[in-house]
Structure to design on (488 residues):
């Protein structure tokens, strides 16, 4: 299959395995492109893309912008904090105003789950979900799997543990869907207060002990504690969280095998992982960032090829 | 749909040798020249030519790369079929080198146009030449002509020229496929 089965990228749950394979294949080609002297291809020179971010972002926003520019698309960026949203303009109005300026594709990050889906039903453009509340972050899951594939050869049969604030994490949910679709085994590990009640219904086992989880896994994806989504205290103190669920070099070196350490960023050094773990040779954190641009180029290219002239 | 054979394996072999000799005549020891096969089908021709140059004419250390032009095509989003990319592999600099594009069939010239833009991502060649096995003479959409041509073919629009290689399809042959 040489086309995506979807017209938007709203979440991993709407994709099929062939979509993921196609995205990875295309991302491989784009990874070569971004390592050339001139890192641009002219494919999307007649496409305009709006990046609409209602929540803060460093990586995702820059990564999308860079991917779009490398494809020669015209890019406009919109951050809610400096816009008329502050004056009470609705989401649909905001986006339709932008679309009236002949924008073909919208990349949106929003605090409400389902915002991207809502948009795809109400406006006439191709939508990419860059994170909707604690729901999905599909491009992150894709680049995470791509990085695992790059480091370990394939995702199928690999054991991946996602550690930390699963309750508030869109990265966790998208990763669970993506990894399972590719035949990996997934466990989650974290304080009971940060694990969703019915997480096991997704076919994911809970391992409450960090050491056990790390001994079991091939890959550990460490998540940041999402303080900004916490309305109450989910654990006594950051120090206690770090002691129970943070990874340091001593713990890493004491395991019976070398595991791969991943983190979607931003890292709270000393909380979920220490600096020496983040900067160790087992960490693929910066590769994830590089792969992020290639994956986003692939997704944008494949979605754009479905927008007919 | 019927097909007619244009070149047999023996004729293909003779032509490849002649093309190799023409290249040597112009480029001598290839110290300032690189060969770039255009993906996907120019790859086999390029490998074959390099093989002949190295084994039969003892030209050493020929630099061969493969260029995929999918992202430089001008028919993105305009066709019905989705475009399929292939691997680009150019492990050397093209800056100031003479580049010889190698492709199996020259038809409208749009692939070569895309290749001319694409190669600029790797540097500025001093010269660019084109080698094709088959030149569909009157089918050009752009002012592009080959420097080295295997066989000139006059084919109408509905017809297709198919080049088969031993490595791929089991034998060397060129067919004209008519509707």
């Amino acid at each position: 299959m040489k086309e995506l089965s979807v017209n938007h990228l709203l979440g991993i749950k709407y994709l099929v395995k062939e979509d993921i394979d196609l995205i990875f294949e295309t991302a491989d080609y784009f990874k070569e492109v971004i390592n050339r002297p001139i890192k641009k291809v002219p494919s999307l020179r007649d496409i305009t893309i709006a990046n609409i971010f209602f929540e803060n972002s460093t990586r995702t926003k820059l990564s999308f912008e860079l991917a779009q520019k490398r494809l020669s698309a015209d890019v406009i960026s919109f951050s809610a904090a400096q816009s008329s949203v502050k004056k009470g303009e609705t989401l649909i109005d905001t986006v339709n105003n932008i679309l009236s300026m002949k924008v073909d594709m919208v990349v949106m990050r929003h605090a409400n789950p389902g915002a991207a889906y809502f948009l795809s039903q109400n406006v006439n453009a191709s939508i990419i979900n860059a994170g909707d509340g604690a729901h999905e972050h599909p491009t992150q899951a894709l680049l995470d799997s791509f990085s695992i594939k790059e480091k370990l050869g394939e995702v199928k049969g690999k054991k991946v543990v996602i550690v930390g604030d699963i309750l508030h994490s869109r990265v966790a949910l998208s990763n669970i869907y993506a990894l399972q679709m590719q035949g990996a085994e997934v466990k989650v590990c974290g304080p009971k207060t940060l694990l969703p009640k019915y997480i096991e219904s997704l076919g994911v086992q809970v391992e409450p002990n960090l050491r056990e989880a790390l001994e079991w896994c091939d890959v550990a994806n460490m998540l940041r504690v999402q303080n900004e989504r916490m309305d109450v205290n989910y654990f006594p103190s950051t120090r206690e969280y770090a002691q129970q669920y943070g990874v340091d070099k001593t713990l890493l070196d004491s395991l019976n095998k070398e595991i791969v350490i991943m983190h979607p960023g931003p890292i709270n050094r000393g909380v979920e992982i220490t600096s020496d773990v983040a900067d160790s040779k087992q960490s693929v954190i910066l590769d994830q960032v590089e792969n992020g641009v290639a994956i986003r180029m692939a997704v944008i290219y494949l979605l754009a090829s479905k927008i007919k002239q | 749909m019927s097909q007619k054979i244009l070149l047999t394996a023996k004729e293909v072999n003779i032509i490849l040798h002649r093309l190799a000799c023409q290249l040597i005549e112009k480029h001598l020891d290839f110290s300032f020249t690189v060969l770039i096969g255009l993906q996907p089908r120019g790859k086999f021709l390029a490998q074959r030519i390099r093989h002949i140059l190295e084994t039969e004419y003892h030209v050493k250390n020929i630099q061969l790369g493969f260029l995929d032009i999918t992202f430089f095509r001008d028919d993105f989003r305009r066709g019905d079929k989705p475009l399929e990319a292939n691997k680009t592999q150019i492990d050397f600099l093209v800056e100031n080198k003479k580049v010889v594009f190698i492709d199996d069939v020259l038809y409208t010239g749009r692939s070569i146009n895309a290749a001319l833009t694409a190669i600029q991502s790797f540097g500025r060649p001093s010269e660019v030449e084109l080698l094709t096995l088959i030149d569909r003479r009157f089918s050009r959409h752009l002012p592009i002509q080959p420097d080295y041509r295997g066989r000139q073919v006059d084919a109408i629009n509905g017809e297709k020229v198919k080049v088969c290689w031993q490595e791929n399809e089991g034998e060397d042959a060129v067919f004209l496929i008519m509707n």
